[in-house]
Amino acid sequence: MTPPITWSLGLSGIRDVASKAIRVVLLGQPGVGKTALAVRFATRRFIGEYDCTTERIYKFTDAATGSWEIADPSGYPPAPTEPKLRWADAILIVYSISDRVSFDETSRLRFLVTHARRGRKVPPVVLLIGNKSDLAASPGERMVSAWEGRRRADDIEAHGFYEISTRESVDQVTVMFSDVSRLVAEAAAGGSVQGNPFRVRASTDGSINALRRPPVPPPGRRLSISARGAPP
């Protein structure tokens, strides 16, 4: 097993939270941007290139949404995911709007979730995420329409559908994870989970500015993100 790698990053808006961390698993083919999505939420920074053979787990606390553990299984070779799917409170199935194959894969990934969670009393929150919406403005880049994404979310019984640009908008990412926090809390309380299955956050929306996170405490805390290498 490769030793864990830890980065310590200065970040404003961090506080200690006593509540249990929300456990999330990201699923999707290599190249859809799921690692960039996790890092964008944890650090508010965008980094576009990652080693898809490395399995990562991000542990951090956010002032607005609480404590998180986000598991990002390696995409190639595929990492065993069933134990993580049983562990998770929420599962985000990610595809790229510019990659039809990654979209087609979402149905199989949803089946894996259902199989892994059979017999569990509390079903996980499942969201379908169409990433790279910034590419929709480039002729010939969009391969999956928002309408298809909404229909697929309905078909796989997802609690929400989001079309976002991890590259262009940290606010879209933050809003999405804020909804994850709310949906997990509703599920844990034993109530019905009220999702937003037809929410679309396009990078050209313009209304996203109204959804910025509230003011955060002064800087001075530090955020630790751990990444665990996959076994050779």
UniProtKB/TrEMBL annotation:
Residues 196-232 are annotated as: Disordered. It catalyses: GTP + H2O = GDP + phosphate + H(+). It is an enzyme of class 3 (hydrolase). Pfam families: Ras (PF00071). Keywords: Hydrolase. InterPro entries: P-loop_NTPase (IPR027417), Ras-related_GTPase (IPR051065), Small_GTPase (IPR001806). GO terms for molecular function: G protein activity; GTP binding. Its EC number is 3.6.5.2. SMART domains: RAB, RAS, RHO. Belongs to the small GTPase superfamily. Ras family. This is small monomeric GTPase.
